[in-house]
Amino acid sequence: MRNKIALMLAIIMIMSCMSLTALAVGRPHYDIYISRADCKVHIYYNDQYYKMMVCCVGAPSTPSPVGVFYTGNKGFSFGMEHGYQCKNATVITGNYLFHSIIYTADGKYVKDGRLGIACSHGCIRLANVNAKWIVDNIPRGTMVKIR
Q1: What's the CATH class of domain 28-146?
Q2: Which of 6, 25, 50, 87 could join 100 in a cystine, given CB atoms 3.0 to 4.6 angstroms apart?
Q3: Secondary structure of the chain: what % helix, strand, coil (to 5)?
């Protein structure tokens, strides 16, 4: 009887540890892969391919950085003081961001809507709906791999 109780307690302890591990390790997560060669952002959710977004990457003279980075602050717009506006920004690393295409300073009209080519100053430009999706869905600390 004593062995059965010990075995039951051991099983309960193992199962509770497995549940805690699953909660800590198995949390839903995103990974982002950016291909500079074909100007695409590939999103994975829980290690399954989830979606693709056409983007604009850095021009040859101002390339997007290559490497593994982790997202930072997000949700802001910038550039109004310089006569343009980029909406829904998310920091990739340093001054390199995901953000919308370029709008006029008041945000009403598209100033530069090009996607699918290398023409940015190194940031990853997206359609505004996709930049907003990243702000709304991608948590801080999400891995971004640029190659």
Answers
A1: mainly beta
A2: 87
A3: 25, 45, 30
